[in-house]
Amino acid sequence: MSQKPINRILIILSAVAFMGSTVLGAVGLFSSALQEPKDDAKTAAAKSIDSQLQTQERGYELVLKREPGNQVALEALVQIRLQKNDLKGAVPPLEKLVKLNPDKASYKALLAELKQRTGKAGDR
Fold this sequence. Notes:
Layout: H1 3-66, H2 71-83, H3 87-100, H4 105-118
Helix pairs in contact: 1-2, 2-3, 3-4
């Protein structure tokens, strides 16, 4: 009879250990499953922003075909290309802005910085 209480304790300990390992495994599985969509969501958000910037860029380019001196479109195109990290692409519309606004020091400073960063410093 002394074996029965020991057997019960061993069975209970085995069941607790089994349940604990099952719960820990399930928690690990669910936590990794919940983290993966976040990475996918970040990627999707970045693609969405890139797509929006592309669409805006095309729109401003169309405006500039009709109105080459449109300063609002030129400024917006520079900003979009800077957001896209297209420094070389930001130079031509910024050069037009400098020609249209020779007294505006901020355009000249930004143009000088972009030319320096893109290796076009000699093009001034």
